[in-house]
């Protein structure tokens, strides 16, 4: 479920926002000042933050600046909630990395439109990143395969089939062992097989993209 953090020191406004977002199916967290909001962002890692500008302790600009300096919170969409609407204030927020502004008083449609727009932009950006990563991985695999000799390519393919066969055989052995009468010998045998499997998987996991290479390599 999408999680939204609302940082607002005015209790009535904060409560209204939380209720509105809950009714729309969002998971919400509230914070009553900039300090608790900053801590809440680090703890809950929300998908989006709505934050008031004028607050005690830390104002919204301080909160945003701190969030943009942490890798964990660097890319979280951030919407300012403010009674200030002059160009200087908006520009300051945008320079710090704000994604949008909601001006008080706001309507339900104002809030939902801003939230949905920012979440969609985040999803689109993540989709582009995932696609780029997949493309890079595919290119690396193609380069790897292109650099293999016929003998090496055959060896990788044989390893793929060997591992598949080994997994099937180990599953059969484990199933047979489980039918034996309960006892220490049975339990030790099952544990041994399971430990062997775990050790092999752990070793193969250390090889970058090994599973992908095996799945995509063919004769």
Question: Would you give an account of this structure?
Answer:
With 219 residues, the protein is α/β, with parallel strands linked by helices. It folds into two domains: 126 residues, Rossmann fold; 69 residues. Helix content is 63%, strand content 11%. It contains eight helices and five strands; from the N terminus they run E-H-E-H-E-H-E-H-E-H-H-H-H. Strands 2-1-3-4-5 form a five-stranded parallel beta sheet, with helices on both faces. Helix 3 links the parallel strand 3 and strand 4. Helix 2 runs parallel beside helix 3 and helix 6 runs antiparallel to helix 7. The chain is elongated and about 70 Å long.
Please give the order of strands in the largest beta sheet. Answer: 2-1-3-4-5
Main CATH class of the largest domain:
Alpha Beta
Domains counted in the coordinates: how many?
A: 2
Shape category: elongated
Distance between the first and last residues' Cα: 43 Å
How big a fraction of the residues is strand?
5-15%
Work out the number of β strands: 5
- CATH topology of the largest domain, by name, is Rossmann fold
- CATH-level-4 superfamily name of the largest domain: Response regulator
What characterizes the major β-sheet?
Answer: 5 strands, parallel
SSE pattern, N- to C-terminal: EHEHEHEHEHHHH
């Amino acid at each position: 479920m999408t999680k939204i953090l609302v940082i607002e020191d005015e209790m009535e406004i904060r409560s209204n926002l939380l209720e509105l977002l809950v009714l729309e199916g969002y998971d919400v967290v509230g914070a009553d000042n900039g300090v608790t909001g900053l801590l809440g962002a680090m703890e809950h890692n929300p998908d989006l933050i709505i934050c008031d500008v004028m607050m005690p302790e830390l104002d919204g600009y301080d909160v945003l600046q701190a969030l943009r300096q942490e890798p964990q919170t660097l890319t979280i969409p951030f919407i300012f909630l403010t009674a200030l609407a002059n160009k200087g204030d908006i520009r300051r927020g945008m320079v710090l990395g704000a994604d949008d502004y909601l001006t008080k008083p706001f309507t339900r449609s104002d809030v939902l439109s801003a939230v949905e727009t920012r979440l969609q932009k985040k999803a689109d950006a993540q989709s582009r990143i995932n696609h780029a990563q997949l493309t890079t991985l595919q290119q690396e695999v193609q380069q790897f395969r292109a650099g293999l000799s016929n003998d090496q390519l055959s060896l990788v393919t044989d390893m793929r089939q060997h591992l598949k066969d080994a997994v099937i055989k180990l599953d059969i052995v484990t199933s047979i062992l489980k039918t034996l009468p309960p006892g220490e010998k049975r339990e030790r045998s099952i544990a041994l097989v399971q430990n062997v499997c775990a050790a092999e998987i752990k070793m193969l996991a250390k090889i970058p993209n090994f599973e992908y290479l095996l799945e995509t390599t063919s004769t």
